[in-house]
């Protein structure tokens, strides 16, 4: 039924139009018929009058009501005549007449003087008779009209069905059965090669052509994307490094299995948010946020190494690589990759300890001291530096051998370490030379510490191999940062100079073992 | 000479025409309508004559009863009279009367056998009215209308 919607609507429209036109034209026809019937009746009545006019003239002339009545009665027997009124002189003859009827009035002439009017005859047409006849004719007209309308409607429907609707429905069905992107095309219906339907079919075929090429292109693109996506997913899912995608607030948008393996390893619950930039996972969470912020001001990528919070004894370290990603809808996301560097960090620490510690004395070696000093200077932290050179060590080495020298060195080192605070650093600078890095700048405090150190150095030690106590002396030169110089080299040189002044008087005035740079 | 001939012809033509007109207007055969000389009516119009002879009124203008008379003989007098009065042939006149007669309200004029009968009837009846050729009018009668054509 739905497919014949146009036909149904067309039928309804034509029927309604036919009914309206039929009603209106039937009315008009009725009026015209009535009027023409009325005219015909009037004509009939005129003729009737002609037939009685001579009698009427005589009746009027002699004013004879008998003859007049004869005329009137004769006229009334006619079916088109409703009533008659005769009036001439004193004679007036009439039949009963309905008040609303209108008469046709005829002049009655003198029978012998034809120009003289001597009376009037009013003849009232029988209107209901005329109306009935008009109605009968009108009804016949209406019947004919409706028959015509029915025939025209049926013909219109049949013609539109075969000419328009069937080709349209066939075309529609064909279109319905074509899958988007298929190579099928519509065929123009017969007799519609150049019609609007033909043009429609052409346009649809053009559209089908376009959509086919579009869909083909899209399919191949989709295939490519699928392959890419698969590969990316593989990369992402199989990555040994935990990778997450998080928004500004730290809500995780994407995370791979490795990330949850890591969370299990560090005993973290499964959450969807570990703070901005995963900072809650790290011991130095605030530092991480600060570092990343600084890095982003300079670069696009932030890389740093941070210790993970864990309940285990072994520290766990991660290299954190954070790449900011601006998405199409302008929301900032972060790709955060964690590399497990715990093992490396452990080895590095060990290495670094090895590198910065003197293996004999366990004191910080020269490299360690330099690193520390550079660090202090970089941070502009004021400090004092004391260069300590042993006196008499070479002789012990020469007389008792290197083992004895080592014993002395260890003895001196241990003693020195015992008198300084944790904060201060005692370093073996090389051979029998030591350096104290003193983080307080009060001279008195420094003198006090150096005195304790001096007493510790000169304390004799029993040499087991020869069963004899031996001892060494020391000369000390001190310099200050930043007063003595801006560079390490300058400060060392000034301390060295001061130390040599002490050396110069070591025999004569051994109590003056300490000289300051400014002296 | 030529002029005289034309004049003579003209005069001759005029005389002939004048003679014929005079002979008709003064013809003794002209129809006249007459009443008794004692009748007070002196003159009647054609309308009054039609009304009297066609039965509309049967009285003179003074209200006295009138007796119209026809002459029904072989002469063409009656035919001549009705032709002159209402311009109808006798057959139509008779048909007219046959319409009216049955109502009884009016009657056609009384029929006289000939002119002689009419004259003797009119001598004895001073209410009568009849028609005659002018030549037949006697001294007892009075002309109240004359048809001039």
Q: How is this structure best summarized?
A:
The complex is a heterodimer of chains A (519) and B (149). Chain A is of the alpha+beta class. Chain A has helices at 5-62, 65-76, 127-176, 196-238, 257-265, 285-298, 342-356, 366-378, 393-400, 402-419, 443-458, 488-504; strands spanning 81-88, 91-94, 104-109, 117-125, 243-247, 252-255, 302-308, 316-326, 332-340, 383-391, 425-430, 433-438, 461-463, 468-470, 473-481, 514-516.
Task: Give the C-alpha Rg of chain A.
Answer: 66 Å
Under CATH, the topology of chain B can be stated as D-Maltodextrin-Binding Protein, domain 2
Highest-level CATH class of the largest domain in chain A: Alpha Beta
Structural domain tally of chain A? 3
User: How many DSSP H or I helices of chain A?
Assistant: 12
**How many DSSP-defined strands of chain B?**
5
- Shape descriptor of chain B reads globular
Oligomerization category of the chains in this entry: heterodimer
Distance between the termini of chain A: 119 Å
The second-level CATH architecture of the largest domain in chain A is 2-Layer Sandwich
The biggest chain-chain interface is: A-B, 11 and 15 residues
> Helix/strand/pairing class of chain A, anyone?
alpha+beta
CATH class of chain B: Alpha Beta
Task: Report the major sheet of chain A.
Answer: 5 strands, antiparallel
Order of strands, main sheet of chain B, comes to 3-2-4-1-5
Average pLDDT, all residues of chain A: 87
Q: What would CATH call the architecture of chain B?
A: 3-Layer(aba) Sandwich
Largest beta sheet: strand ordering of chain A: 6-5-9-8-7
Protein name (chain A): Diguanylate cyclase (GGDEF)-like protein
Domain GGDEF (chain A): 381-518
Organism (chain A): Pleionea mediterranea
Transmembrane segments (chain A): 6-30, 144-164
């Amino acid at each position: 039924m739905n497919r014949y919607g146009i036909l149904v609507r067309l039928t309804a429209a034509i029927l309604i139009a036919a009914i309206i036109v039929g009603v209106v034209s039937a009315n008009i026809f009725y009026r015209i018929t009535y009027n023409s019937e009325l005219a015909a009746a009037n004509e009939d009545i005129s003729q009737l009058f002609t037939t009685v006019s001579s009698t009427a003239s005589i009746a009027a002339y002699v004013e004879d009501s008998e003859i007049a009545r004869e005329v009137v009665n004769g006229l009334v027997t006619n079916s088109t005549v409703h009533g008659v009124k005769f009036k001439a002189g004193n004679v007036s003859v009439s039949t009963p007449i309905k008040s609303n009827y209108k008469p046709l009035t005829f002049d009655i002439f003198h029978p012998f003087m034809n120009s003289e009017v001597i009376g009037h005859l009013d003849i009232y047409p029988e209107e209901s008779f005329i109306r009935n006849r008009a109605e009968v004719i009108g009804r016949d007209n209406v019947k004919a009209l409706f028959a015509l309308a029915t025939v025209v409607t049926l013909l219109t429907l049949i013609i539109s069905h075969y000419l328009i609707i069937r080709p349209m429905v066939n075309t529609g069905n064909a279109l319905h059965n074509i899958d988007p992107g298929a190579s099928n095309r519509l065929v123009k219906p017969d007799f519609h090669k150049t019609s609007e339907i033909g043009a429609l079919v052409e346009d649809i075929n053009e559209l089908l052509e376009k959509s086919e090429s579009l869909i083909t292109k899209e399919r191949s693109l989709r295939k490519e994307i699928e392959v890419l996506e698969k590969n990316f997913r593989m990369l992402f899912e199989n990555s040994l490094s935990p990778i997450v995608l998080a928004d500004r607030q730290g809500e995780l948008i994407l995370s791979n299995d490795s990330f949850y393996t890591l969370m299990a390893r560090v005993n973290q619950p499964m959450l969807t948010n570990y703070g901005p930039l995963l900072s809650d996972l790290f011991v130095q969470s605030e530092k991480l946020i600060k570092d990343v912020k600084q890095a982003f001001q300079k670069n696009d990528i932030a890389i740093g190494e941070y210790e993970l919070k864990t309940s285990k004894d072994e520290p766990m370290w991660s290299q954190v690589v954070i790449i900011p990603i601006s998405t199409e809808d302008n929301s900032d996301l972060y790709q955060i990759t964690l590399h497990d560097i715990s093992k490396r960090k452990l080895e590095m620490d060990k290495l670094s300890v090895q590198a910065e510690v003197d293996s004999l004395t366990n004191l910080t070696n020269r490299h360690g001291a330099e690193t520390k000093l550079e660090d202090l200077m970089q941070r502009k932290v004021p400090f004092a530096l004391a260069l300590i050179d042993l006196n008499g060590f070479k002789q012990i080495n020469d007389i008792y051998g290197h083992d004895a020298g080592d014993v002395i060195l260890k003895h001196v080192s241990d003693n020195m370490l015992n008198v300084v605070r944790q904060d201060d650093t005692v370093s073996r600078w090389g051979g029998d030379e030591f350096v104290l890095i003193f983080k307080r700048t009060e001279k008195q405090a420094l003198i006090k510490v150096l005195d304790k150190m001096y007493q510790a150095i000169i304390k004799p030690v029993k040499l087991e191999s020869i069963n004899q106590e031996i001892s060494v002396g020391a000369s000390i030169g001190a310099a200050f940062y930043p007063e003595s110089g801006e560079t390490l080299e300058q400060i060392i040189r000034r301390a060295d100079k001061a130390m040599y002044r002490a050396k110069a008087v070591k025999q004569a005035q051994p109590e003056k073992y300490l000289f300051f740079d400014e002296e | 000479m030529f002029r005289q001939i034309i004049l003579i012809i003209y005069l001759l033509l005029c005389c002939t025409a004048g003679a014929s007109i005079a002979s008709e207007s003064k013809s003794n055969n002209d129809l006249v309508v007459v009443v008794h000389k004692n009748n007070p009516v002196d003159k009647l119009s054609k309308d009054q004559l039609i009304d009297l002879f066609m039965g509309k009124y049967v009285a003179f203008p003074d209200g006295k009863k009138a007796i119209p008379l026809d002459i029904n003989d072989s002469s063409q007098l009656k035919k001549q009279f009705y032709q002159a009065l209402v311009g109808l042939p006798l057959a139509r006149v008779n048909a007219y009367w046959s319409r009216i007669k049955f109502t009884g309200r009016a009657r056609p004029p009384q029929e006289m056998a000939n002119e002689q009968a009419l004259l003797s009837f009119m001598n004895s009846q001073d209410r009568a009215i009849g028609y005659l050729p002018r030549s037949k009018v006697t001294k007892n009668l009075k002309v109240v209308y004359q048809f001039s054509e």
